[in-house]
């Protein structure tokens, strides 16, 4: 039994192979265009070293173009296990610094230990819980992970999940 292979069969097989390789390469190219750029991935995380902060100090950092308020609680401030981030023996409040009413940026008044929103008079206590005015809920807690004395914003962790479940 002899198998006769014609030129037309070879051309058909060659065309099919080229089309399969081209299709696979185009799918790889499409997937690469859907992936976020490395610069976008890098902007998703912000690392803050908490060790140089003094008691009662409030620091504002930026994460994903949003202000983040980090307040190291002093011993005179009441502990709140539902909202405090505990790093070592220190307690911190970590919240997104946008009023939950209309998104204005509240100002921290250290003398009153309150966050006051000038837009419509909303007041949040030192834990970020609304105490007066139109804000419908407390200041939001951003996703975070604790890495030694560093706070990594943008990653979730068991500590974050526990706070969000309580808050």
From TrEMBL:
Asked whether the UniProt record includes Transmembrane helix among its keywords, one would answer yes
Keyword Hydrolase annotated = no
Question: Its topology with respect to the membrane?
Answer: Single-pass membrane protein
Write down the superkingdom of origin: Bacteria
Q: Which EC number(s) are documented for this chain?
A: 1.10.2.2
Question: Which keywords appear in this protein's UniProt record, sorted alphabetically?
Answer: 2Fe-2S, Disulfide bond, Iron, Iron-sulfur, Membrane, Metal-binding, Molybdenum, Oxidoreductase, Transmembrane, Transmembrane helix
**A matching Pfam family:** Rieske
Q: InterPro entries annotated for this entry? A: Rieske_2Fe-2S, Rieske_2Fe-2S_sf, Rieske_Fe-S_prot, Rieske_Fe-S_prot_C, TAT_signal_bac_arc, Ubiquinol_cyt_c_Rdtase_Fe-S-su
Protein name per UniProt: Ubiquinol cytochrome c oxidoreductase PetABC, 2Fe-2S subunit
